[in-house]
Write a structure and sequence with these properties.
This protein is α/β, with parallel strands linked by helices and about 375 residues long. It folds into two domains: about 180 residues, Rossmann fold; about 170 residues, Glycogen Phosphorylase B (Rossmann fold), CATH 3.40.50.2000. The chain is about 45% helix and about 15% strand. It has a seven-stranded parallel sheet with strand order 3-2-1-4-5-6-7, sandwiched between helices. Strands 10-9-8-11-12-13 form a six-stranded parallel sheet, with helices on both faces. The two termini are about 20 Å apart.
């Protein structure tokens, strides 16, 4: 039985990534891996997706316990624990797997680039690059790793989907609106990170291209928590582009409303500049809703492979062309719904765990 240490300092916090790591730990445990989790213990204990047999320790203690494990997997990148772990693993012959969590994607690196590059060149590359394996979500992310470490060993493994909460009252049948299309963005309204600026410009371009030929043929709803002045920014964009009549901004909603919005949408549109893989996209797939995503969401490759929606570039013109396809291609929606069902099976946590175990076994063999 493989003995695995998973380190994510915020593993018991709320939010997307912490829950992902907890559910991954549970799936690995069910598959027969002996998992010990390391994280901050000052958060309220959350056990969703975990087995009682999973050990839990303070993240600060891992360098001292490293010899007890066959492999250590650490999530995140810009932390001094990484070089410390790399040194401990190097001296004790323990393989180290690192999940950058999209932090090396070019548009993430463009935020405070000098600080990040200094950390990578001084604290990261001298130690981490020598004997580590990288876990990535896509080939795009693998390329971002190899920009810094051309000979880096990598393996791909995505994140799974979460079941819709019971009692949401969501119908199994999607409403029939003919050729009209309802698009939904759901998530934190971080304008830059989530690409809301590109979304609105692309959507406005679509409305202009359609003109009077198909009035009301495509509606957009933006839902989720306002973020860093997003509300006035969105209002100004709607006014400037003249699309107030076609876009509804509804702010933060509860779980029931979120599930209803996802079920009623024809497509979730999510244009991240960096991400890995966003929870709203996976929730939409669980609901059977096709998606329009960017490669930088770290889910574009899977969406395209399974035909579960469209992958578009981070340019308004490309976004507009993608939206036009959802309106003008009468058979696209049904094809995408079939693709979503296939992708849904691929994203079951117990299947996802198999990709990680395969990657871990290769890392152990290469050590």
């Amino acid at each position: 039985m493989m003995k695995l240490a998973l380190l994510y300092t915020d593993v018991f916090a709320g939010g997307g990534y912490p829950r992902d790591v907890r559910w991954l730990a549970g799936a690995l445990s069910r598959a027969g891996v002996d998992v010990t989790m390391f994280g901050r213990l000052d958060f309220p204990r959350r056990s969703d997706g975990l087995q009682e047999a999973i050990g839990i320790r303070s993240w600060r203690s891992l360098p001292f316990y490293s010899k007890r494990f066959d492999l250590i997997h650490v999530f995140g990148l810009f932390s001094m624990i990484h070089p410390l772990l790399a040194i401990a693993c190097e001296s004790r012959g323990v393989p180290l797997v690192i999940s950058p969590f999209a932090q090396l994607l070019p548009l993430h690196m463009a935020v405070k680039p000098r600080k990040k590059e200094l950390f990578i060149r001084t604290a990261w590359m001298p130690w981490i690059g020598r004997a580590s394996t990288f876990h990535v979500f896509s080939q795009l992310e693998a390329d971002s790793v190899r920009k810094w470490l051309p000979d880096a060993r990598v393996f791909e493994g995505t994140l799974g989907i979460f079941p819709v909460a019971d009692g949401c009252g969501v119908s199994d049948e999607s409403p029939d609106r003919g050729s009209a299309r309802n698009l939904l963005f759901f998530g934190r309204n971080d304008v830059h990170h989530k690409g809301l600026d590109v979304l609105l410009e692309g959507y406005a371009h679509t409305v202009k291209l359609l003109g009077n030929r198909s009035p009301g043929s495509v509606k957009l709803t933006i839902a989720g928590q306002p973020w860093n002045g997003s509300a006035p920014f969105l209002a100004e964009c709607l006014r400037r582009f003249g699309i107030e009549h076609a876009v509804t901004v509804i702010g933060e909603v509860n779980e029931l409303t979120k599930s209803r919005l996802l079920a009623e949408a024809d497509y979730l549109i999510f244009l991240s500049r960096w991400d890995g893989p966003p929870r709203p996209i996976r929730e939409a797939i669980d609901m059977g809703t096709p998606v329009v995503v960017t490669p930088e969401s770290n889910m574009g490759e899977l969406v395209e492979k399974f035909g579960a929606g469209l992958q578009v570039g981070l340019k308004a013109e490309e976004v507009a062309q993608g939206i036009l396809r959802t309106v003008l291609d009468s058979s696209l929606l049904e094809r995408c719904r079939r693709g979503v069902e296939q992708l849904k099976g691929h994203l079951a946590w117990d299947r996802v765990a198999k990709d990680y175990i395969k990657g871990y076994e290769e890392a152990v063999c290469q050590r």
